Amino acid sequence: MEIRKTPLTLSAAVAAALLILVGGAYLVGHIGDWLESGLDAASTDAKAQESNLRIVEPTYATSVTLSDKQLTSVKVEPAGEHEFPVEKTAVGSIDFNEDMTVQIFTPYQGKIIALYAQVGDEVKKGQILFTIDSPDLLQAESTLIAAVGVMDLTTRNLARVQELYKTLAVSQAVVEQAVSDQMTAEGNLRAARDSVRIFGKSNAEIDRIVAERTADPTLVVPSSIDGRVTARNGQPGLFVQPANPPAPYSVADISTMWMLANIAESDVAALRVGQEVKVSLLAYPGKVFNGRIWSIDAMVDPNTHRMLVRSAIDDPDHQLRSGMFATYVIRTGDPVRSLAIPLDGVVREGDGTNTVWVTADRRKFSQRVVTTGMQNGGYRQILEGLQPGELVATDGAVFLSNMVLIGQGGS
User: Residue 159: which domain range?
Assistant: First the structure.
């Protein structure tokens, strides 16, 4: 870049000489003003020429030509069609299915004697979780034993009265009273057996109590469902009462688990109960769990503008654990078939644009700006800037962009 300075003009010099010869003293007084005027004109001319100078920005290559050795770093494929499912993604965590989780309370008050399951154990319906020393059970069994005694007494009394009536030793009224007493005793005995049965005692256990005339105050509390123990809040010696939280045990059915995800407000309109979801977890790379949206909250969080969505995830092998971090994909529409190229063929430039490298002879590559869309299965959807069948660089596209940046590409 060269800047030239402009000298005084010839006309200004000639005028100065003539004024010296003709004007004499007048020239002496005013020559300084003329010289200053000429210098100002020269300075103005130079500045004007400087302002017309242009700073040329460096240009970058839009195409590169590769040598045989460089071609080994680039893989070329034709642009083709690929199927893109219409999906929404979300992240969340695994939790137990609250609709299939039960709190195991004691049906009657008492002191815990022993516990038979730990947190994380898988239990079957009817399996004993804990036992308590129940005064209510003791009272019911005592009533049963007394009812058995009364029943035996009235039965023997009825038999004796009937024998006496045959000899007319007693009246008909005495016989009828004995029959009534015996029927009342039978009813009391049935009620007493039912009272003990309510505590979970089987008929065989009740028969043993009756036969041995011995009360057993040990109340057995079983699990009401098949599942996994999720909490244990009891310990031996603790006095527990019905429906008094916390429950000694919590058991959850783990055939299905919930995934809790906070969905962006902008995606809520695309969701509905029953939509299929596919869940991926860090704990099981490459494995996909299937499920469906179970429920969608009625309110959006005003602070985060997100909504809680629960999905029921099938877990037949019981691999999921509460609290696991998970990512899931929700199918919201029919798949779209569109032009696409492998992900490595799209280069995101420093200005935010996406570019691809197109070639016709597999040696000279031209850079082209494209508009991209969805991503799936290792492919990126191309909305604008590319035609089906055009050859594009896939592996090595970043290598070509770097060549342009360091100035090794051809113009």
Answer: 104-249
Q: Give the bridge partners for 342, in sequence order.
A: 379
**Residue from 377, 375, 359 nearest 367 by CA:** 359
pTM of this structure: 0.55
- Average pLDDT taken over every residue of the chain: 81
Determine the Cα angle at 131 with ends 246 and 127, to 5°. Answer: 90
Helix axis angle, 203-212 to 135-166, nearest 10°: 70
Number of domains in the chain: 4
Q: Would you say residue 374 has pLDDT above 90?
A: no
What strands, in cross-sheet order, belong to the sheet with 101-104? 101-104, 249-252, 227-232, 122-123
Question: What mean pLDDT is predicted for residues 278-301?
Answer: 90
CA distance 5 to 230: 90
258 and 241 share one domain: no
Is 279 exposed, middle or buried (CB count within 10 Å of its CB: 0-12, 13-18, 19+)? buried
Q: What's the full length of the chain, in residues?
A: 411
Q: Are the CB atoms for 356 and 385 separated by under 8 Å?
A: yes
* Max Cα-Cα span within the chain: 188
Q: Going by C-beta distance under 8 Å and a sequence separation of 6 or more, which residues neighbour residue 223?
A: 104, 117, 123, 124, 125, 126, 127, 129, 249, 251
Query: Do residue 122 and residue 176 come from a single domain?
Result: yes
Alpha-carbon span 108 to 306, nearest angstrom: 44
pLDDT tens digits for range 154-183: 998 888 888 888 888 888 888 889 889 889
Do 184 and 259 fall within a single domain? no
**Residue 352 structure tokens:** 């935010």
Q: What is the pLDDT of residue 312?
A: 92
- Mean pLDDT of all residues in 65-83: 89
Q: Tell me how far apart the alpha carbons of residues 382 and 340 are, in angstroms, rounded to a whole number.
A: 5
Helices 172-198 & 135-166, crossing angle to 10 degrees?
160
- Percent of the chain exceeding pLDDT 90 equals 34
pLDDT at residue 61 in the model:
46
| Distance (Å, whole) CA 112 – CA 104 | 13
Is 220 a member of any domain?
yes
